[in-house]
Known about the structure:
- By secondary structure, the chain is α/β, with parallel strands linked by helices.
- It folds into two domains: 123 residues, Rossmann fold; 135 residues, Rossmann fold.
- It is 39% helix and 21% strand.
- The chain is built from nine helices and ten strands.
- A ten-stranded mixed beta sheet has the order 3-2-1-4-5-10-9-6-7-8, with helices on both faces.
- Helix 7 links the parallel strand 7 and strand 8.
- The protein is globular, with a radius of gyration of 20 Å.
- The two termini are 32 Å apart.
Amino acid sequence: xxxxxxxTRRILVAYDGSPEAELALGWAAEEARGTGRGxxxxxxxxxxxxxxxxxxxxxxxxxxxxxxxxxxxxxVVAETRVGHVTGELLGAxxxxxxxxxxxxxxxxxxxLLVGSVSQHLARHAPCPVVVVRPTRGSDPRIVVGVDGSSAxxxxxxxxxxxxERTGARVVALHAWRTHAPSTDVFSSDPRALKxxxxxxxxxxxxxxxxxxxxxxxxxxxxxxxxxxVPCLVDASHDASLVVVGSHGLGFFGGLLLGSxxxxxxxxxxxxxxxxx
Length: 276
């Protein structure tokens, strides 16, 4: 495969020929068309588990055959690699605009699914990581987990930029674990309701600048006193994308995006983007 072309900041796609990898490739191609980026499509066989050497490389080349021709309207570099899957992808991600992987894989790179590889990429890749799976709903709605941290601010910015290209609406969702409401002995008002009002104000303040920077994006906000993971997973049922920060715990408290993002990767029912 021709790897001599080295334009800057391509979208990196992990590819193994599986249906899930085809979905990832299609998602990445759409993103490339919308952003003007090229694609870097890589087929990897883990050298630690594969004893076949040249046969492994040939199998990877077969998986990639025809991709450059099929995506002829895009600037595509396709290559095969033999090595540790996570290490190879992290190395390639150093010069990538973002990394796109399928939710499952097959063959000797079968760890390339929502598991060790994608979880590791989400934690350590220097760019956004998108795990693609079939979308159940038809609503062009991007849900963003917000906790007031810098990572969630980056997630909101990522979502708004994509919404500008796709026409999707953005839902800024802050969810937190709460206990049964107790009563303030002086005012007799439920404390949980006071907390909700306070969080709604902070959420509104955290997205105020986005309304100015992205005036054409329809931006909603929701503050929900429900544990973050089930809330985001439930919101994913009819969403086109869920976006979360790679780590967090900002001024809201109670939404540690580092752990939340990993759980959402496992359980969401639409593509998930993890942004730092």
